Amino acid sequence: MKNKYSQLLSILVLIFFISPFCQGRVGDLIIFGLFFLMLMIIIRIIRSFDLKPRYVFLYVLIASISFSLAIFVVEERFSFPYYNYLLAISYLINAVFFLGAILAINRKIFHQRKVDQDTIKGGVCVYLLIGMLWAFFYGMISILDDNAFSQALEPKDFEKTIYMSFTTLSTLGYGDITPINKIAMRLANIESIIGQLYPAVFIARLVSLYTAQELADRN
After folding, report:
1. Fewer CB in a 10 Å sphere around the end CB: N or C, the chain?
2. Looking at domain 4-218, which of 3.40.50.150, 3.40.830.10, 1.20.210.10, 1.10.287.70 is its CATH number?
3. In terms of Cα–Cα distance, which of 154, 53, 29, 140 is closest to 90?
4. Are 164 and 141 a contacting pair, CB within 8 Å?
5. In this predicted model, what pLDDT tens digit does every residue of 184-201 receive, in sequence order?
6. How does residue 156 score in pLDDT terms, banded at 50, 70 and 90?
């Protein structure tokens, strides 16, 4: 499967940039559609890897549960307390799905023997998926503890959790939203460490592969 990361990178960038403009019911449906498309693309990528069938089946099952819960979350046909619990479960399932994608794609990238555009796009996809993963973590914590952050994060206001996540991942840290809950504080620490280490390790891997490739071509 050639250029397998191009579509995933495109959909991640699209979600990242247009989600602030998607408001109300129509906006929720647009994001829901893009999210579903992203699930399908990730599943296609995972299926292209040399994984055991039972792992692929388990991953597809997790994606199906994630998609089913997303339908209920968009509909909002529940009393508010139950809706919050459902949303927390949805965030947890999505976190498992994104974590599986990150581990599988990252493993594939770091086993590559040749540097090409697809390898670079895959690395960027992993970085963006890490930001999305931590947004789900922060979302779960904000549901379980209303005072987990200096600013209240509404259960369905995923924009603020995305903002919090990528601000932490990039180690920018404006300080307008800060973790107060101890678990949230530790998660923020871990994300900022990953935000520094992953690009450095990924670039080092690319340079080593490129150098080995150049030496092989010369010989």
Report:
1. C
2. 1.10.287.70
3. 140
4. no
5. 999 999 999 999 999 998
6. low
